[in-house]
Amino acid sequence: MLYTPGSGGGDWMFSRQPTPRVNRERFCISPVSLWNRFFPDRAVAGRGIREDSVPIFEPFNRLGTTPYGQIIYNMHDSVVGRSIEHYEEYADHETSVLHQIVQPGWHVVEVGSNIGAQTLYLSQRVGPEGAVFAFEPQRILFQTLCGTLALNSITNTFCWNLAAGAEPGELMFPPVDYSRPGDHNGTKAVTDNGGEVVPVVTIDSFKLQRCDFLRVNSPGRLPEVIQGAAETLERCNPIVYLECSGEAAEAEAALIRQLHELDYAMYWHNSPLFNPDNHAGNPENIFEDRGLRNMLCFGRSQQVDLTGFEPVAVPRAA
Question: Tens of pLDDT along 12-33?
Answer without folding.
Answer: 434 444 444 444 444 455 555 6
